[in-house]
Specification:
The protein has 141 residues and is α+β, with helices and mostly antiparallel strands. The chain has helices at 27-31, 56-60, 98-115, 122-129, 131-140, and strands at 5-13, 37-40, 43-46, 68-77, 89-90. The protein has a three-stranded antiparallel beta sheet with strand order 1-4-5, with helices on one face. Strands 2-3 form a two-stranded antiparallel sheet. The chain binds iron/sulfur cluster (2 copies).
Length: 141
C-alpha cells in the first residue's frame, strides 16, 4: 500500500490586532488562502471557522499586526499527487504536544493498515469510506 501524509507545522493567528500598526494595505486579506480575513467596522478579523492555521497572515503582514498566540501542529492526511491527485484533509486543528501528533500518526497508520486496499492510497481510502466518517473514527480512538 502506498501512503501519503501531510504534516504541517502551523502558527495559530491571533484574532486581536495591534491596530495602531496596521497600515490597511490589505495584503492579509488577499493573501489568506481560504478568505478567512475580512474587514469589520474598520478592523481586520479572521474567521476561525474558516482559518486553516497556515500562518500566512503572520508571515506576510508588513507590520506584524497578526501575532501568533499558540504554536503547534496541524495534521493533514491523504494528500497525494500522481494520476489521481487529491488535496489533503485536515484531521486535527492544532495539536500543541508533539507526543499527541505521534499518537495521531499511529492511529492513522493502524486504520490504514486495517481498511486500505491494495494499491489504494490513504486519500483514496478516505474517499471510498467517507472522509467525515473516517476522521470522526480516528479522532474518537
Ligand atoms: S492563519 Fe492562514 S487561514 Fe488563518 S487567517 Fe491567517 S492566512 Fe488565513
Ligand atoms: S497585512 Fe497587516 S498591515 Fe496590511 S492590512 Fe493586514 S493587518 Fe494591516
Amino acid at each position: 500500500m502506498k501512503s501519503s501524509f501531510w504534516f504541517i507545522k502551523v502558527i495559530l493567528s491571533s484574532r486581536e490586532m495591534s491596530g495602531t500598526d496596521c497600515i490597511n494595505c490589505n495584503i492579509c486579506v488577499r493573501g489568506c488562502p481560504v478568505k478567512a480575513i475580512s474587514q469589520l467596522d474598520g478592523e481586520y478579523v479572521s474567521d476561525q471557522t474558516k482559518c486553516i492555521n497556515c500562518s500566512v497572515c503572520t508571515t506576510i503582514c508588513p507590520k506584524q499586526s497578526w501575532q501568533a498566540k499558540r504554536r503547534g501542529y496541524s495534521v493533514w492526511i491523504g494528500g497525494t499527487n500522481g494520476k489521481v491527485p487529491r488535496a489533503g484533509t485536515r484531521l486535527s486543528r492544532l495539536v500543541e504536544n508533539l507526543d499527541e501528533v505521534y499518537a495521531i500518526i499511529d492511529r492513522v497508520l493502524c486504520y490504514y493498515k486495517d481498511h486500505g486496499q491494495k494499491p489504494e492510497r490513504l486519500g483514496h481510502m478516505l474517499e471510498r469510506l467517507g472522509t467525515e466518517r473516517v476522521c470522526a473514527e480516528l479522532l474518537s480512538r
